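This section describes the prediction task in plain terms. A model, or a person checking by hand, is given the sequence of a single protein chain and must write out its three-dimensional structure as a string of tokens. No templates, partner chains or ligands are provided. The sample shown here is typical of the held-out split.
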Amino acid sequence: MTGADGFRALFGAPPQLEIRSPGRVNLIGEHTDYNDGFVLPAALSLGTTVLARGRDDGILRTHAARAGATDAVPLADLQAASGPDWTRYVRGVAQILLAEGVPLRGADLLVDGDLPLGSGLSSSASLEIGLVVALTELAGAELDRRTMATLGRRVENEIVGVQCGIMDQLAVACGEASHALLVDCRSLSVEPVRVPEDARLLVLDSAAPRALASSAYNRRRAECESALARLRAADPALRALRDVTPELLKQESSRMDPVELRRVRHVVSENWRVLGAARALGVGNLIRTGTLMRLSHESLRDDYEVSSPQLDELVRIACDEPFVAGARLTGAGFGGCVVALAWAHDADAACARIVERYRARTGLPGRGWVCSPADGARVVSRNSA
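The expected answer:
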């Protein structure tokens, strides 16, 4: 059951709020966020819809339409870390908000959406921020966008067990239509970067599943932390890998094992590529932006080792298109999606050709969407009934 009619059928009354929370695609800047680096994501029109109505009995009742499941739990006894995976996000958001002193009331929630799940488009962050908006609106509380993002990340880190950075939540909370966001993950500053009108983002799903909570993601983060500890022996002032210069990396490379060296080399070079891509995109230079995206994919494939044969094939097919400037894996990797930067006049046809060729070569049911950057999570309708 979906929409307002589905909400009424489930809960016996119409929703008071409808919230739309976008997914995000990252143009460039992967695995830099938890190293205090730079990223360049954009919010998507694909996203999560949360319909909400307040309750006076302190019960948080949620129906997840795509899972076909309902969860009901008292706010006084959330036990967020227990239960099916999807309930951890719902209960976790409520638990973190309560811990921060937000006076939540009970709620009926219907969660649905058109964002592909488990494909590297931040479906979890989209859900988290959508729930933050819904529950704080029902409580009459106001939170700024950066605080929302920080709380969403805490759900991932403390409840779900994924030691992610803050990029996904910031992109979902702070998205701006027609713009990518240059995010400094140390200061949490967000600078809109206009995406040219003649450009489109192709979001290409490899149909190769991924699991952010798997050991591979957390292992990459641990490798970065280990490398940083070794480099601090040479420069104790280093706060994160973001502070490592190419010169320091070259001079002190012998302090690290070969795996650590590759991880640091990716982070250092990726930060440089993000800043260059933001400058190029801002002046409408799609060719330069696309070149940097290709270099980013090569680094993620070879130095960070988070690509896959399917992702590599999808990038190759996309980059063979004459009106695609560049492509790369997006998200943490290990499967999921590719993002390509294309000229608008051929974007729909290019997307269809890429998907057709990918299916023919791999036998996988890949999909594609032609997108432009969207606004961040917001209330799209209110009903006082």
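For orientation: The radius of gyration is 21 Å.
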